[in-house]
Amino acid sequence: MTNTLFIDGRWVPAASGETREIRNPADGELVGVVAEAGAEDTEAAIAAARAAFDGGAWRAVPAPERGDFLLKVADRLRERKAEFARAESLDTGKRLVESEIDMDDIAACFAYFGKLAGLEAGRLVDAGDADVVSRIVYEPIGVCGLITPWNYPLLQAAWKIAPALAAGNAFVLKPSELTPHTAILMMQVLDELGLPAGVANLVLGAGATAGAPLSSHPDVDMVSFTGGLETGKVIAAAAAGTVKKVALELGGKNPNVIFADADFDAAVDNALNGAFVHSGQVCSAGARIIVQDTIAERFVDELVRRAQGIRLGGPFDEAAETGPLISAAHRDKVTAYVEQAVAEGARVRCGGAWGEGELAKGYYYLPTVLDNVRRGMSAVRDEAFGPVVTVETFSDEDEAVATANDTHYGLAGAVWTQDAGRAQRVAGRLRHGTVWINDFHPYLPQAEWGGFGQSGVGRELGPTGLAEYQEAKHVYHNTRPQVTGWFEDRK
């Protein structure tokens, strides 16, 4: 299927006629062939979105009706869950059960914003004058460029599409070129349910070509990007030329702080989940274990024992517990990360190698634990975005907080302790956008998600996630206008 760009309500090929093969990273098998867009295609999509927004076909729809549409999207996603989940697993290589969970979360996201859409009617402001009605209203921001990553392709897209539509915007979606198929299915759903032509547009292709115009084009009012820090910096710089709104979620180097009084078994188990779910290809992965020195040796020994037993396999292998990395290039990047850590003095306690045997057909990297690391080392500072966890130690609460906050990121973190007071103190001092206490990884559609520092700008989900796609307007109505007399009438 090469007519896989969706522009102005029509499925079209790339203007160049170019295509891209999509292969399953678990075994290299061909998944599909899709159109490979270039800048010309993206500019056409932007033009379609601009015309649709300016024409008012969607933003003029009352907010409660837009919400009803999103609820219908949620229902359709639940009906087609198996189809969507399979497509997601084929593109990403992740286990089917994980993709199924993702689809439930995606439907919940659309349902949340569907219910939220009609609740905000603005607010009245007391002007201190009985003859003045002063109100704040919230309007759509306009044309939104949505750029999404390959690790949670449709989930990350849903976090942007749902609030963008709820607010009344038009958009152009540019998913990762590696994982396009659920974005294609999503456009089918929006089209089938009657979204006006041009409101939702899809371009597939590389970021440097298909994605670049979304950051710099004057007809794009906002760009929302989820992905790597360096790409985020490029997008922010490109967007500055037209002073468009920018929302960035740029990953993290997330601390998992474990005190000696924590529930030991639960802390170990969740440390594994935090580090190795989806082979660590998670922006909020607990890639830094910071454990109190009095239990560190016992904790790391148990973590290593458990990590060595993790079963790797493809998306439809029911015995598998985690899967491959997304590509050979990414596996090489993770390999280089571990090699650099060793060169700086880190010790590989387990893993540190590619999968062998049947696993050699895909891009597998063994769950890896690195200890003997120090603050300031590249392994502690940089994001691996793979199945690699580092171990640091601390002696007291102040040192734990200082170590956890010693990062230019600030997306998420966790604290494990049975002391409720300590838990609240540490959570309050951690400079991270999400802090879990005695847990790791859960999120809620109704709770804001985003980071401090270089983890990004803005928030997704929650009421603030909707506000990111809105402009606030002050309407000041003088119901009894009079001559001010400020300037003398010299007639």
What is this structure, in a nutshell?
This protein is α/β, with parallel strands linked by helices.
**What is the CATH domain class of the largest domain?**
Alpha Beta
Largest sheet: 7 strands, mixed
Strand percentage lies at 15-25%
What's the tally of helices?
A: 15
CATH architecture heading of the largest domain: 3-Layer(aba) Sandwich
| CA radius of gyration | 24 Å
Quickly give the structural class.
alpha/beta
Q: Strand order, biggest sheet?
A: 14-15-16-13-12-17-18
Give the overall shape, derived from the CA principal axes: globular
Low-confidence stretches: none
Number of domains: 2
CATH topology of the largest domain: Aldehyde Dehydrogenase, Chain A, domain 1
Query: Helix proportion of residues, in percent?
Result: 25-40%
How many extended strands?
20
The CATH homologous superfamily of the largest domain? Aldehyde Dehydrogenase, Chain A, domain 1
Determine the mean pLDDT: 97
- Distance from first to last alpha carbon: 75 Å
Family: Belongs to the aldehyde dehydrogenase family.
GO molecular function: oxidoreductase activity, acting on the aldehyde or oxo group of donors, NAD or NADP as acceptor
Keywords: NAD, Oxidoreductase
Pfam families: Aldedh (PF00171)
